[in-house]
């Protein structure tokens, strides 16, 4: 310790203003491979044909800017019947369509960048990108608005192949400069000159496109615009002439942007978008005058844009432009999708290399073999198919420019192939894939290129071309990036009173992880994900008092003994010659005890036995224990620099699991991959599968399924996951160590709402702290884990009684602090906050919605009077509310169970009524459409999750239990909000020092039972026998006490052992046999002696004994004293807490009950006055539906409009919106999961565990490591602190968590020093 300060307690909170092969089955691997191949083929076809279609549409519009009233040629003569009607508004529509195709993506980027800059997220302006993109916009606009209108389709296509002009020039200059470099031999220079000749020739050929048509035909007037357009576009196509050789040169920023080494900041993005729009609009306005459109004025453009009519060709042109924009977006998404799958389009069929050739071939075919359907389709848009209009009187078989145009096309395709050709990298290299940051609508193929760059490869640059390159295969070379990949994972499980089956399940998972960890650490492959592993199990309330030979001893309870025997059985550990197990060490600790075990493959397992008399028990305090121990003591107390400790924190992860969790090593690896891929993730959680038997488990299987399929997936896609389950989540150490997380998590409840938010759902509260501090929580659907779910009705209701109020409290806390959460966390937007508000709002209205559904369904199914049915449902639900306020929880649960069974039969009536409504009102009726849509979406979701498809079957149980869970469970959770324990109200009353008040019925039953028992004992003379047995037992106790009085045993305690509790308490208070000081001294001596007694028990005596090192012992004592000392409260304090919770319960429960009652009443009253207050709705013209004639009782077909309840319809619409949002989130998340599955299949390899016999040296090494963790003299050697690298250039990085803590600690020290100097 330095200056009396504790480094482990540096955390703060302040007020706000390959292991086993993938777990995929063979059929799934085959299906994924087939799907991957099919997607690859489909995506390639869409990219290629989409580019051809887009290019043709853009050129057709461009060639129709100038009026072509008299077209000549074979195509025009044959298809002359396709009459094209053109007006000035149509011409304006063509201009606007081309402008929209080019500038719409830029407008979106402009708005997005402006919003981000408004939030303060700016950056340095990269001027070179702004200039180059402005040149590209000018070039494309000049060609499209002025040059192409004077050409035909074929010549436009070959001209667009000449865009790589500057790229060819650059390649020629590089070759010639290389040949002229000093120091080369004549032969070398001559050879390099010959290599430069083809590039020079290609440059001259492409350069001829700037002037060749001015030599052939006098009709072509764009003699100046043509070279300007070609040169500007070629220079602006900077991705074609910037490559890895420009790294470190003047063009280094362009190199970094091209290969995504850095992203384009908002300032540059805003400037680029603005300049591109300004340049395009300016060129278009100038082209209107240069093209001679003197009759065009602003009114034509306004009319074309704002006058919408599908009968007008200018409106159809704008719709066509919108379709092209959508196609461009889809194609860019597909390109990114293929890049994510590492499936790049074949180079020779990439749009950049093949699209001009395919389009040119199709144009030639259509002109030579006229197909008039093209002309007819284009005529509807006011467009013509423009074939060759030059050299019609030429006598030769080919046109004078035919060969040069064909050469242009060939050179352009070759240069396109050179740009997109696939680069091959070693599997060990870390590859970055990127796309052009700007979308060019007028030449979309330029925006579909995927560039790849290796971060590991040393590329030659123009600056150091001939310098020596470091040998990548040099074994002596230090590879810092490899060391960084070795993460440390602490698996932390919390146990209490788990069964043997649950313990076996979690131990089986731990042993699999042990094998996987050892295999990966022994694997020397660079690309293999490796991690250090250490397991910690925290046993809550693991001790009990037993009396042996008159001595009271503190021993581990039966649950730990069962775990120890199970551990020995599963690891197969044998005794050595001395009858000991060398891999088992027992240690006394300030919180109880510890068992250290070396697992078969070398992983260390620490079992912490918590004594609730010495340290706080329950799960949250166990989490505080391992957070401060592993992150505070292990990291903060290390004698390393801030930089190295930050490296430790960044590479350290805590895997939180429960005492019954079951998972495969692959599940952990997927979470690790996710955490390593994104540094802003504070936690990653997996897909939790409930297991067990019974109807309640079936219900939970479907409930968990739809919650993960829809809710968690939508939270992941649109924002952040709100809850990381404690049964299987991976936390980043540096995130937990940040301000307002670890330290605030130690806060004890001081207000009534704190008891609900902090202790009823500790996992949810920890997640809320992470989110508000700015860390993302993400969901990995492929990381599967299983946990036992409540199997009984009472256990399930009590679990949800804890979860529901905690979930609501934490969500409300996040919503109330939405400004700070949105400011700190980039993933939490205002739209996401609004979505969460809708979700929690409608969840609170669940009882009213389900109640009204039940009433109307029973009326429709049984044909009863609506008032009667309403009262039939109000009475049982009202009675349950009354029971919740007045009776004990066991009576509430019994009533809820029987009512759940009764309402399950009612739900059959709901099913019948719903089916009848669908048949009578048809599917297009709003309510019917909502139900059918919801069922269809659920089935579709099940199809997207083939491994979990069978969960859809459990939806039947979920449907039958809707009244139970959405009405009775909701009411039970809210009205029992003041119950803050796992138990019932009896536990609260006992804690407050009050006697439990029983209901009158319970009192009557107890009185009758007591009377019967007394009568039975009098008849059987049992009372006399019990009195005699009690007297004999007391005499034996006295004899035993007299024999042990010399040993200092508390005789009074032995004699009073079987006395009634009240009598013992009274006698203890009046006893003054021994002085207080002497009693305390004896007590401490006995406690010290008993500290080692537990190690001698029959099953633990085979273990070796260890001693806790002084530094760690000091740490535990200070931690317990600071945060974990057992909480002692008086009955008065507990009564105050109970009263506060009851008051909070009353406020919340009465508010929600009132809102639900008002909503239910409003819906019923509106239905009662449906003829007046309803909305008349006709789904379509000629709609008919079936209605019962109230006079005849017969069903008749009618064309009357449907009468829709406006309030109910509003609720249905909002629920449908939420469902659709969640469905979109599910689709996007499934796409992300599928990409991960494809990558997993790609990296699939045969794997076998290497069996290496443990030698005596290995055992000694493991034992020394185990002892080092317990009794080491050096902190660093005991913490496995090897392998850290320094990759941070500046220690004073303000984003560094450890730097912030150090800065705060130094500021506190300086303040204290200043105060002392003043004094």
Automatic annotation (TrEMBL):
GO terms for biological process: chitin biosynthetic process; eggshell formation; positive regulation of protein localization to cell cortex. Residues 1053-1067 have a biased composition (Basic and acidic residues). The gene is chs-1. It catalyses: [(1->4)-N-acetyl-beta-D-glucosaminyl](n) + UDP-N-acetyl-alpha-D-glucosamine = [(1->4)-N-acetyl-beta-D-glucosaminyl](n+1) + UDP + H(+). Its main location: membrane. It is found in: Cell membrane. It is a multi-pass membrane protein. Residues 1053-1080 are annotated as: Disordered. GO terms for molecular function: chitin synthase activity. It holds the Pfam family Chitin_synth_2. The keyword Nucleotidyltransferase does not apply. Keywords: Cell membrane, Coiled coil, Glycoprotein, Glycosyltransferase, Membrane, Transferase, Transmembrane, Transmembrane helix. InterPro entries: Chitin_synth, Chs-1/2_IV_N, Nucleotide-diphossugar_trans. CDD domains: Chitin_synth_C. Its EC number is 2.4.1.16. GO terms for cellular component: cell cortex; plasma membrane. The lineage of its organism: Eukaryota, Metazoa, Ecdysozoa, Nematoda, Chromadorea. Belongs to the chitin synthase family. Class IV subfamily. The chain crosses the membrane at residues 37-63, 125-145, 157-180, 192-214, 220-238, 270-294, 314-334, 830-857, 869-886, 898-918, 924-944, 956-975, 1148-1166, 1207-1228. Residues 25-416 form the Chitin synthase chs-1/2 N-terminal putative transporter domain. This is chitin synthase.
